[in-house]
Write a structure and sequence with these properties.
By secondary structure, the chain is of the alpha/beta class. It contains 9 helices and 16 strands. Strand 1 and strand 2 form a beta hairpin.
């Protein structure tokens, strides 16, 4: 029985790895298309399409405008090759079934206040994924192309215990919705990339329920970026999400520390956190060797509100409030379940999930006022 179970486990793991590799291959094909259309690279576009593929586009004088892929590719010879043309593209979702796949990508043209949604049908041909059909539609948008980086954790348990934890879904949703409403794009970064555990999901909450069943949003939860895939130059701010997971993997991760500090020091951007996410900024040091929190007003989940006789608490690697104060920060908080936001220069922190939207609004205010 044990051998049968292990064999089944190995089969399932192999199937999962295969699915992940196929999805990555599809993503690469879509990214060839996105790069080609954003930088006027016809060869990159042609590489993504099956030669006899067709595009089904919109036209004010036709119900359907049929454009062969070869013709579409030629359109991008008009622009200067390798020079950004104002199109911002990103993959929204990918679904693979055997040798076929469907994918969705968002194309923003902020200067024209226009958003395109591209839908692709792909097929694996002679070992390579190719787009065999594309349809697109567009609509006006307030999306500006400005991007915020949410930092989350892959940790499923409190330390090495068997006590489950996750990233706070309410903190993610409350902040994400605030940014999205104001036209900002949010990306997600985790130490390992890929899927993250989610906690504190309340489907009686209208906003949480809306995002829980949003395919594109949940795809982002399943496909977070790795540090090596993240270009700090794209971001106006980093935002550390809380939940028990935030205490592990993220605070000590040197690559994530480097990204956050480059956004702060080189981009003159913002570092922010909420609740246990403040653990992520506790170890950050600026170029002068000082702790980021030194001399700053900082908020987060206070040590006194932890259930200090709880089993989970025994596995905390450090205490947030104590560590912030030892490193020269002034830790500020309010009563339980009350929103509390601290802004000190370009550092914005919040006490709990009730503070998530307030932190996001302060970030937006600071970015817009800096223009």
């Amino acid at each position: 029985m044990k051998k049968m179970f292990l064999s089944l486990l190995l089969i399932l793991q192999a199937a999962l790895l295969f699915a992940q590799s196929e999805q990555a291959a599809v993503q690469k094909t879509i990214e060839n298309y996105l790069k080609g259309t954003s930088y006027n690279l016809p060869d990159s576009i042609a590489k993504a399409f099956y030669p006899e593929a067709n595009l089904f586009l919109s036209h004010k004088e036709k119900p359907v405008w049929l454009v062969p892929a070869a013709e579409y590719t030629q359109w991008f010879k008009k622009g200067e090759q390798g020079v950004f043309n104002g199109r911002l593209g990103r993959v929204i979702s990918i679904e693979v079934y055997n040798d076929i796949a469907i994918a969705q990508a968002e194309i923003l043209i902020p200067q024209r206040k226009q958003e395109f949604m591209d839908m692709f049908l792909l097929k694996k041909l002679q070992g390579e994924w190719k787009i065999i059909s594309k349809s697109a539609s567009s609509m006006p948008t307030n999306k500006s192309g400005k991007r915020i980086l949410f930092i989350v954790s892959n940790a499923h348990f409190y330390g090495k215990s068997a006590i489950a934890t996750g990233n706070s879904f309410s903190e993610i949703v409350n902040a994400y919705h605030t940014f999205a409403t104001e036209g900002y794009t949010v990306d997600f970064l985790s130490p390992e990339g890929g899927s993250i555990p989610l906690a504190y999901i309340n489907t009686s909450d209208t906003l949480q329920k809306e995002y829980l069943y949003d395919q594109g949003f949940m795809y982002a939860m399943e496909h977070t970026q790795k540090p090596a895939e993240t270009d700090y130059r794209n971001y106006k701010a980093v935002h550390y999400i809380g939940g028990g997971s935030a205490m592990y993997q993220v605070p000590e991760n040197k690559e994530i520390q480097d990204i956050a500090l480059k956004v702060y020091e080189e981009n003159m951007g913002i570092i922010s956190s909420v609740c246990h996410g403040t653990a992520g900024i506790a170890h950050l040091k600026t170029k002068d060797g000082k702790y980021l929190v030194e001399g700053k007003r900082i908020s987060g989940y206070p040590d006194v509100y932890e259930k200090q006789d709880g089993e989970y608490f025994k596995h905390f690697p450090f205490l947030i409030q104590k560590t912030i104060e030892e490193r020269g920060g002034t830790f500020k908080f309010s009563g339980r379940n009350l929103a509390h936001v601290e802004t000190d220069g370009r550092i914005i922190t919040g006490q709990n999930f009730q503070s998530s939207s307030g932190v996001a609004k302060k970030i937006i205010q600071l970015i817009e006022n800096a223009r």
